[in-house]
Amino acid sequence: xxxxxxxxxxxxxxxxxxxxxxxxxxPNPAASSSATKSALNTLFNNYVEAGAQxxxxxxxxxxxxxxxxxxxxxxxxxxxxxLEIVQAPTIGEMSREGFVxxxxxxxxxxxxxxxxxxxxxxxxxxGNKDLFTRVYKxxxxxxxxxxxxxxxxxxxLVYWDLxxxxxxxxxxxxxxxxxxxxxxxxxxxxxxxxxxxxxxxNETLKFAQLTLEDEAMSFWTEESSWPxxxxxxxxxxxxxxxxxxxxEVMDEEY
Length: 254
Hints:
With about 250 residues, this protein is an all-alpha fold. It folds into two domains: about 30-125, Orthogonal Bundle (Recoverin, domain 1); about 135-240, Cullin, PONY binding domain (Recoverin, domain 1, Orthogonal Bundle). The chain has helices spanning about 10-20, 30-45, 60-70, 75-85, 95-105, 110-125, 130-145, 155-165, 180-190, 200-215, 230-240, 245-254, and strands at about 55-60, 95. A two-stranded antiparallel sheet has the order 1-2. Helix 7 (about 130-145) packs antiparallel against helix 10 and helix 8 packs antiparallel against helix 9. The chain is elongated. Neddylation of cullins play an essential role in the regulation of SCF-type complexes activity. One of its GO terms (molecular function) is ubiquitin-like protein binding.
C-alpha cells in the first residue's frame, strides 16, 4: 500500500522553518542575543578597575587597556570611532550598557571580532562621509565638561584638528590652495573668545565640506543662516587672507 505524502506548500515550509528556529534543534535568535550579551558582560568585567565602586563603568585605565587590545590609537581618530560604537559617556570612560548594546548590535562578542570590525571601519572611513559625520557629531557630547552645554574653545580646537587632519578623516579641511583648518584655528584664537555650542559645532562641518567644494565661498551670502562666527570668518578670510576690497571702498575710489 502506497501512502501519499501531503503536497509541500510555502505555508508548510514556513511552519517548519519557524519550528526549526524556535526550538533546540536550530539557532534561536533570542538565545543567541542573550549569549552574546552574556559574553560581552563578562568581557566588560575584564576592564573594570579593581576596587571600583561602580562596576558598570570602566575608567581611564581600563579604557586604555581595551584600546591596546583592540589596537586603537588612544590619541587617534580611531579612538573616537571606538568610543562612538560603545556610546561612551565621556572621553576615557565606557559604560556597561553602551559597551554591551553597541557590540551586541554588531554581533561582536570577542576582542578579536571587535578588533576586526574596527579595522574595517578604519579602512573605510576616509571614503565614508556618513560614518565620519556620525563620529564627528558624537564627539561634541563627549568633549563637553560634565554639566556644560558647550565645549570650551581650546578643547574644540584640539578635536577639530584631530577630526579634520587625521589620515582617517573623510573631510580633510585643507587644500593645495587654502589651509582652511589653520585659518579657522587662527581666526578663532584671535577673535573668538566664547565656547562652542552644538549648532556651531555641526555647522562647522557643513561649512568645511562646502569650502572644499567651492573655495571662493560663493555659496555664502549675507542672507544665509550661518552662525555669526562663520559670517565673521568669511569676512576675515576675504579681508585678511585674500586681500579683497569691500565694494563700498571701491565705489569711493571711483
